[in-house]
Design a protein that fits this description.
The complex is a heterodimer of chains A (771) and B (167).
Chain A lengths: L14 H4 L16 E7 L5 E7 L1 H4 L4 E6 H4 L1 H4 L24 E2 L5 E7 L2 H8 L3 E6 L25 E9 L2 H7 L2 E9 L11 E6 L6 E5 L4 H12 L6 E4 L15 H13 L3 E4 L2 H7 L6 E9 L5 E11 L9 H8 L9 E9 L14 H19 L3 H8 L8 E6 L5 E4 L4 H12 L3 H10 L3 E13 L4 E8 L5 E5 L8 H13 L6 E5 L16 H27 L7 E4 L2 E4 L5 E3 H9 L15 E7 L4 E13 L6 E11 L6 H20 L30 E6 L18 H15 L9 E2 L3 H10 L1
Parallel strand pairs in A: 1-12, 8-29, 10-11, 14-15, 20-21, 27-28
Antiparallel strand pairs in A: 1-5, 2-4, 2-6, 3-5, 7-15, 8-13, 9-10, 9-12, 13-14, 16-17, 18-26, 19-20, 19-25, 22-23, 23-24, 26-27
Helix pairs in contact in A: 7-8, 10-11, 11-12, 11-19, 15-16, 18-19
Chain B lengths: L9 E8 L2 E8 L4 H8 L18 E4 L2 E4 L12 E3 L13 H8 L9 H14 L5 H7 L11 H14 L4
Parallel strand pairs in B: 1-5
Antiparallel strand pairs in B: 1-2, 3-4, 3-5
The chains are: A alpha+beta (771), B alpha+beta (167).
Chain lengths: 771, 167
């Protein structure tokens, strides 16, 4: 059977309802009798709570209840479990569902106001009187570990949560023999999630108190179920969590938040359905972000510009808590050595508590950080040795004949990191070919006219298809239509379409014949979540496996029905056919037969139902790679940066739907451009957030964004049955590094060196003025 | 409370939404987006920022794209409004902008989509000769976090072409 849909630019099954306003996002779900919740949040970065006086709020017309940690008892006071436990952290701090005695960042949830309408709940939230005793706030990453520095939490002796160390090889030896060693100090900031739909949680307790239905705008409904079942002391089967249509995730919606705990808790406490929908102001202060990293590094290179070794140290701001353990700094660590075949590496990251919103992965997690660091070092080597920047990369890359390539680093499970497939040099050359060879001439001409254009380059490798598993059930129904159930819900990626494409080819039907249901814990038993560019690999492979098994069963049963050899049967147009004859039986008839009739045994050796369930376990990682190139023009008078061209050469293995992969890349690149030029979450010295609306915190807009030219390479992964690698974050990872590289190139007549992002127009004007 | 307390004051309004005449008593502080969603059940209009920047809540009021989070429901008294639910024809035929969004992969999560589609429908109905620069300017008040805008622009160009009758 040839692939008809796998690999094709199939239009999305998700779209008809979304383009006509019939999506069902959390706040759209009709829920008779629902009460609305507003959250009272801390206005202080660090403070003790002396008392909470809710009398006035409780008297407000329309207010049903005001609930504090005291009212909800121990389960609201106990710190939430860390989603990824980190034994190396001496003092693991996580937030309580409602603050109990103290607060550690502006925006921390302190109390709930439950009312007949959201407007009334907000009115009353403003008159809940909380008496705080402010404490010194720690917001200064540079000095966070100094003696006498304010601690971010009174439970801490020091702001150091822990230190991660990694590396390989004889670092001292490599640096001693190297022809060149260069030092760099680099810093970067990532910003927030800014999904266009904010978070939200709704909960409806069963009148008996034995069951609860929860809806959450989450990337991880199964993690919400696990957390709530444990917290509420209920069976997982009694806690149903649904991720409805989710309006973007980008990482932060994978966290199980205070509100995910406290809304169901309060719903059970009151015996009422409750809904809380985050507003944008809350999103800026209560949804996790990625904050600052400060790096000190050295790179060793040989006389030909091949990078041999890197050593460095990082201060990583993790905010007030570790909801996700140290996953974020771990992804920064484990992204070394990127695409480079280094002989030695020594990296350490100090994970620091501060009084700012907690950190968890935002699109790319710690990978864009490491890519920025590696690419700045590669550009530095090129600059110092007078080599083309692409040449340093070609010489330093893992070469095509080295796959599978063990980098020297260890994965989280202790196994050796091993890159599966690819040709990094060829991928770079594809980007260069697309970009064209006339740039230098145009740059010289522009400079002669007093214009400053520059070319940027950045390459990356991304670990994708994160363990442990996802699964899928395929069930042919008696009407011939197919139901595909999976835990791997989407937040815009188009999973329904790609899963249907994969299954359709195996079953000889069209994607339109398949209904995909995802993200409802009552429909599929187990799942992990849509994070870390993992679902095409894990979910996609499980769909493939379930479809192959369903197909085999259809052929087996049909061979009895049609009295034909299995080898002579093909699946086509919804039928199993005897090749070269007109004998056939429809999938619907086979399904009906296997659903069974009263008193009639099924065929011998055949289990009920034309269906199969499969789990794909990701025991080995797949690695996508690519090189980005861009062209910018910098106005040295105003500091304005215009991106003139952006080229991506990208290898994420076999493509399931190139149109959707392109969509992931384009959106990802633009997120990275935002990180380079626009997005800056500023806190003042007291830990007060200063950029809490879209006038102050800038997101990329249509008028500023370039077209993104994409070239695909397809190096199938040998590590899963469909050859795919993840594509969700590969756009973002190199984009900021690429834009910064281009700006530095544009400003090379001024010998300006760029060591951080985001860069504002003011920053650039200052740098040019100083030069 | 005085008559001017916006949490208490109620006014009677009449307006057409998607061709249907509605009459309602509304709190004067209720913005048009909340009114459409909560009073009329038209949840296709999405609220993304409620401070007038993201454009997700855009609806077409008397042929102009407006942000329903920046207008009070009482200000829409007497208006003719079209929302995302009212763009397709009664027989289900999609508006050319909706059709083009599907063809060109102009949406991912779909949350900004109603605002993008209504904005583009309004401006292209007024002027289907818009070029890429004009289209980017027209949606510069609509934020999309998923697509990077390129496929939205492509969809708008396709829709413009069809609305000019180029097919």
């Amino acid at each position: 059977m040839g692939a008809r849909y796998f690999g094709a630019a199939v239009k999305r099954l998700e779209d008809p309802k979304l383009i006509t306003g019939r999506g069902q996002y959390l706040d759209d779900i009709a829920m008779p009798g629902v009460l609305h919740v507003a959250v009272v949040r801390s206005p202080h970065a660090h403070a003790l709570i002396n008392s909470i006086d809710a009398a006035m709020a409780r008297d407000h017309a329309g207010v049903v209840a005001v609930l504090t940690a005291e009212d909800l008892g121990e389960m609201a006071q106990k710190p939430m479990p860390m989603m990824a436990p980190a034994p190396m952290v001496k003092t693991p701090l996580t937030q309580s569902p409602l603050a109990h005695g103290s607060v550690h960042y502006v925006g921390e949830a302190v109390a709930l106001v439950v009312a007949e309408s959201r407007a009334i709940a907000e009115d009353a939230a403003a008159i809940v009187m909380v008496d705080y005793d402010p404490l010194p706030a720690m917001v200064d990453l540079v000095h966070a570990l100094n003696d006498g520095a304010a601690v971010a939490n009174q439970a801490l002796q020091s702001n150091l949560a822990g230190t991660l160390k990694g590396g390989f090889g004889d670092v001292a030896g490599v640096f001693a023999k190297a022809a060149h060693v260069f030092k760099e100090s680099l810093s970067l900031h990532r910003g927030g999630c800014h999904a266009m739909e904010c978070r939200g949680v709704m909960a409806r307790p069963d009148p008996s108190g034995n069951r609860i239905d929860i809806w959450s705008s989450t990337q991880s409904p199964y993690m919400v179920r696990r957390a709530l079942a444990l917290c509420l002391g209920m069976d997982e089967a009694s806690v149903r969590v649904t991720a409805p249509d989710v309006g973007g995730g980008f990482g932060p919606k994978a966290v199980v938040y205070a509100e995910d705990y406290v809304i169901p808790m309060a719903a059970r406490h009151l015996g009422r359905a409750l809904k809380w929908v985050e507003d944008r102001g809350e999103h800026f202060v209560a949804t996790t972000q990625q904050r600052d990293q400060l790096w000190e590094l050295e790179v060793a290179a040989d006389a030909q510009g091949r990078m041999l070794g890197i050593r460095g140290h990082c201060l990583h701001d993790n905010g007030a808590y570790l909801p996700y353990g140290v996953v974020l700094p771990v992804t920064s660590m484990s992204s070394f050595p990127g695409p480079y075949a280094l002989e030695a590496l020594e990296i350490s990251l100090d994970v620091i508590y501060t009084n700012m919103v907690p950190n968890t992965p935002v699109r790319g997690a710690g990978r864009p950080n490491t890519c920025f660091v590696l690419e700045r070092l590669a550009d530095r080597v090129a600059l110092e040795l007078g080599l083309p920047r692409e040449e340093v990369r070609r010489r330093s890359f893992v070469q095509a004949n080295q796959f599978p390539y063990e980098t020297g680093m260890k994965a989280r499970d202790g196994s050796l990191v091993s890159y599966d497939s690819g040709d990094y040099v060829q991928c770079l050359d594809l980007a260069m070919a697309k970009f064209g060879s006339d740039f230098k001439a145009r740059q010289d001409k522009a400079r002669a006219e007093g214009r400053y254009i520059g070319m940027g380059i950045a390459s990356y490798v991304e670990d994708t298809g994160l363990a442990p598993y996802e699964g899928a059930t395929i069930r042919v129904q008696p009407n011939g239509k197919v139901l595909l159930l999976t835990g791997a819900a989407a937040q815009g990626q188009g999973h329904k379409t790609v899963f249907a494409q994969i299954a359709a080819d195996q079953l000889g039907i069209t994607p339109q014949d398949i209904t995909v249901e995802a993200g409802d814990t009552s429909l599929f038993p187990l799942g992990i979540g849509t994070i870390a560019s993992r679902v095409a690999v894990t979910g996609g492979s499980s769909v493939h496996m379930a479809a192959v098994e369903t197909r085999a069963k259809a052929i087996k049963v049909a061979s009895q029905v049609l009295e034909a050899q299995e080898a002579d049967l093909v699946l086509e147009g919804g039928f199993v056919k005897v090749s070269g004859t007109d004998r056939q039986v429809s999938l619907g008839q086979l399904a009906l037969m296997l659903h069974g009739n009263f008193g009639q045994p099924l065929p011998a050796g055949i289990a009920p139902g034309l269906s199969a369930t499969a789990f794909y376990e990701a025991r080995q990682t797949t690695f996508a790679n690519g090189t980005n190139l861009c062209e910018v023009e910098v106005d040295i008078e105003t500091g304005a940066v215009k991106i003139l061209r952006y080229v991506v050469a990208h290898d994420c293995g076999t493509l399931i739907n190139p149109m959707l992969v392109d969509g992931q890349i384009r959106g990802g690149v633009v997120h990275g451009i935002g990180n380079a030029l626009f997005e800056r979450m500023i806190y003042d010295e007291n830990g007060q957030p200063q950029t809490t609306n879209y006038g102050e915190y800038l997101l990329p807009l249509a008028t500023e964004m370039p077209r993104i030219e994409i070239v695909h390479m397809e190096s199938p992964s040998p590590r899963n049955p469909i050859g795919v690698k993840g594509a969700g974050e590969g756009g973002t990872i190199p984009a900021a590094a690429c834009v910064i590289s281009a700006i530095e190139d544009a400003l090379s007549p001024f010998n300006v060196r760029l060591k951080s992002h985001p860069l504002s127009p003011q920053d650039l004007v200052e740098l040019v003025d100083k030069a | 409370m005085s008559d001017l307390d916006p949490t208490q004051t109620i006014r009677h309004i009449r307006l057409h939404v998607n061709g249907v005449l509605y009459e309602r008593d509304v709190l004067t502080r209720t913005h048009l987006g909340d009114f459409l969603r909560q009073e009329l059940g038209l949840t296709g209009t999405h609220l993304g920022c409620e401070h007038g920047v993201c454009g997700a809540c855009t609806v077409i009021l008397d042929d102009q794209p407006i942000r329903s989070c920046l207008m009070l429901a009482v200000q829409a008294d007497g208006a003719r409004i079209r929302t995302i639910e009212g763009l397709a024809q009664a027989d289900g035929t999609l508006h050319p902008v909706q059709e083009a969004f599907w063809d060109k992969h102009g949406l991912q999560c779909g949350f900004c989509t109603p605002g993008m589609v209504t904005t583009l429908a309004a401006v292209l109905e007024a002027d289907p000769t818009m070029d890429e620069t004009a289209i980017r300017e027209a949606i510069s008040g609509n934020i999309c976090r998923c697509t990077g805008y390129e496929t939205i622009v492509d969809a708008a160009l396709q829709a413009a072409s069809r609305m000019r009758g180029d097919r």
